[in-house]
Amino acid sequence: MIRYREIAWPWVAFAAALAILAHEFVTRWLASEPPLAGTAWRVAVVTLGVASLALLVLPRRRAGFALGAALCAALMAYALYAQYQLGLEPCPLCIFQRVAVIACGVVFAMAAIHDPGRAGAITYALLGLAFAAAGAAVAMRHVWLQALPPSEVPACGPGLNYMLETLPFTDVLSKVFLGSGECAKADWSVLALSMPAWTLVFFLTMMVSALALIDRD
């Protein structure tokens, strides 16, 4: 176990300063590139920071799974707050991302209750990894749609409930991933990242954390 006093903090601070300068340079360079390039860079930088922080503070296995379940619950609570208090109606891709968050939360909650050994932890971690990867794929598609020029944005389609009632599920998946106009709207952002971009950061961090929890016994 590494003790904090053994870490060369001046070098860490120096590396952080260089990273900030590099980030500023790349951000200015990407200003002339398509919006997707800048968004991808910001997502990569934020994910690196958030995932690194998660690995630094990640507790032992059972507490870590419980923490993951709590974070999923908190994310869903904010999603409902944004919908019913801020008036941000979820598009079909948002709904699919919510399903992935709930699935991750259920897996982590079951793992925390079960408190398995290493073999069981691998099973739970792989399940969480699969759901998080599926959510990340949906979030990536959503971020890509939001980066499209207005002239290339698909037309708005029917609601998800209507499609589920009238179409086979495979057709619903196909239409949702093709995207529609409402999925391309970015009505919320923090640090120049939209909600799907932050959701992508969350899913990527959960994937890293799930794998790390295997050896946190």
Structure report:
Strand 1 and strand 2 form a beta hairpin. The chain is mainly α and 217 residues long. The mean pLDDT is 81. The radius of gyration is 19 Å and the shape is globular. It has a single domain (35-213), classed as Bromodomain-like (Up-down Bundle), CATH 1.20.1550.10. Helices cover 72% and strands 2% of the residues. Strands 1-2 form a two-stranded antiparallel sheet.
Largest sheet: 2 strands, antiparallel
Secondary structural class:
mainly alpha
CATH class: Mainly Alpha
Lateral strand order in the biggest sheet: 1-2
Query: Uncertain segments of ≥5 residues (pLDDT<50)?
Result: none
- Please indicate the count of domains: 1
Rg: 19 Å
Named at the architecture level, the CATH assignment is Up-down Bundle
Cα distance, first to last residue?
13 Å
Rough outline = globular
Mean pLDDT, nearest integer?
81
Please trace the helix and strand order, writing H or E for each element. Answer: HHHHHHHEEH
Strand element count? 2
Give the proportion of residues in helices.
over 70%
CATH superfamily membership, which one?
DsbB-like
Number of helices: 8
Q: The CATH topology is what? A: Bromodomain-like
Percent of sequence in beta strands: under 5%
